[in-house]
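Case study B.
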Amino acid sequence: MSATAESLKAGAPQGAPAPVSDDRRVDGFVVGVSIIGLLLLGALIALETAPFLVGLFAVGTVLGIALYHGAFGFTGGWRSFVVKKRSAGLRAQLALLALASMLFIPILGSIEPGSGMSGAVAPVGVSLVVGSFLFGFGMQLGGGCGSGTLFTVGAGNIRMVLTLVFFIVGSVIGTLHLPWWLELPGVNPVSLISGLGIWGALAIQLALCGALAWWVTQIERRHHGAIEQRVFSGPDRGYISNLFKGQWPLFWAVVVLAVGNLGVLLLSGHPWGITFAFGLWGAKILQAVGVDMSQFEFWTWDYPSLALADSVLVNVTSVTNFGLLLGAMLAAGLAGRYNQASSGRIPPRSLLAAVLGGLIMGYGARLGFGCNIGALFSGIASASLHGWIWFAAAWVGSLLGIRARPWFSLSNS
Amino acid sequence: MSTVQRHYKRWRVIVILMLIGGVVMADHIGSPTFRMNMGEGGLETTLSQRQSQTSACAPCGAPCRPED
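Model:
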């Protein structure tokens, strides 16, 4: 979970709904600016590109709102389970994976070859394991994963801007090294749909998600006697207030994120991803200052080379990210909390953690073929083995990252 | 009802968004898609690649796979 997500929950006792208080006022300036930004950028995309990209921009906006209002992040959910043995965030993530599997697998298993639609499948090898391990470590220092970094930046969190900047730097370095990593031992992508069929793959996926949910629930019960009721319940302020100002029950975010990812798949032909755009933005900056990116193998491959040459407004990942940033800004304005996570002095060691976390996440995301969204969420929803391996390796990296946090003045409590 | 406690300066938000918008516009104006929209022909763009390509080439950074 991100810094913003943490601050949203600050003061809320574990295992109980958030305090009932609706004295928050909408920040009209932030809401107005974000709506103007959405309209202007949406109009530009509509005029200059294609209708499906306008749709992606809209889906990205909704995803940004859901991430912010649901305070949905992977980083804090994992840490909360490891440190406090609280599993609500992790259970919500497993529910997300199960729901997305139910939506994706029948579609991906039924598409005709040559349809232009494919799941998030990637090779399984040293590159994936090292990359996802690094990502898991980095996200605990950075304070957010791929989606967490992006939506907190949209909500005006200054520290996370630093994380994002170095996420971009790390991503570019990762693109330069990826071809070398891919030479190391590994196998071609493994699709459970190809091996087991639609229903076999779905059964395995749901069984795994169910077994993990049962396991984390048992651990929470053993330590606390009861489980946290945050998945289905939110603050008692009424549905309309919760919907527009937040905070959403985690389950609302789960449904919106799963359906949103399906929307990205149907519109663009590929599931939701975030971090390819970070490497692309960094490479474009280098190219603008005179660096010849074509000397690097990654940027000669079909997809990256054309993405580099063409407008960010026709890059599906960038367009979705733009929507997400502005959607999170809109949500933060509606909640009256824009930039609130940046109030007060940020310790220098925390800034160092943001730099290191961003760099490591960026590098890891390229080696691991994405972040918690592109590799974990979309990979598992696509029944690709690499998604599960990413999950396991990132979890191990995250355990080390959690241990390292106190060295950087970052609290684990 | 409490008032909104702002932790930011409005002009900074506007300047940052305008800067980002300017960078996006500059990138777009220099792109093959913009030139094609202006009537220039014979250009390969992301959208034309998308129409002609049916192989799995996901934007995750993995090398594109030939059609299964």
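Chain B touches chain A at residues 1-8, 10, 13-14, 17, 21, 24-25, 27-28, 31-34, 37, 44-47, 49-50, 53-54, 56-65, 67-68 (CB under 8 Å). The remaining cases will be described in the next quarterly update.
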